[in-house]
Every structure is written in C-alpha cells, then in structure tokens.
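Re: weekly structure request thread

Next one in the queue (106 aa):
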Amino acid sequence: MAKKQSNIKERPKVDKKERTNLKEPRRYKVIIYNDDFTTMEFVVTILVQVFLKSEAEAEALMLKVHHSDKAVVGIYSYDIAVSKVRKATAMARAQNFPLRLKVEEE
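Done, posted below.
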C-alpha cells in the first residue's frame, strides 16, 4: 500500500532575535514665555484648548508665566510638542498677539 501524503506543510524554523537596543523615545518640553501684550485670558484659553489643561491648572500656569517670565506647559513626544506649538502660535497670530512658545529636549 502507498503512503498517504499529508497536505500540511512543515513550517521552516525561524530564529527569534531578541532586541536589546530599544530606547525610550526622547521627550520634549513646551515652554511658554511672558510678554507685555498677550492677555492673561488668552493665555488661559490657549492652555485649556491646545494643551488640554483644566481651567484652574491653566490659571495657575498663566500666573507662573506672568511672575517668572516662562513656564513648562507640558512634556510630549517631538511631533506632538511641535504640533501644539504651531497651533497655539497660529491662534495667537490670528488675534495679533506675539505669544512665544518653544520646544526643548527634556
């Protein structure tokens, strides 16, 4: 009698390589600077709408900026940090405010 062939193919063996050189992605802080023209209310609006802060947290950050000339408003991946800075800057320019924000490596 002839041997019956199986339709199941054997899978080739694959060596699994362990990746040991993985690094956590760099984080970037967004810094907002004080100026004499941008209103406190507008800064609070930016902090709430763009940086998703609560009203109380936004007011506290705004006062910190007002008294110490700058403050870190958040720490993000590079793309998110740049996107938030661009959005906040565009909103400020639309209202004719010279608000300045900067992205720095943490």
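Strands lie at 28-33, 70-76, 100-105. The CA atoms of residues 24 and 69 lie 31 Å apart.
Next request, please.
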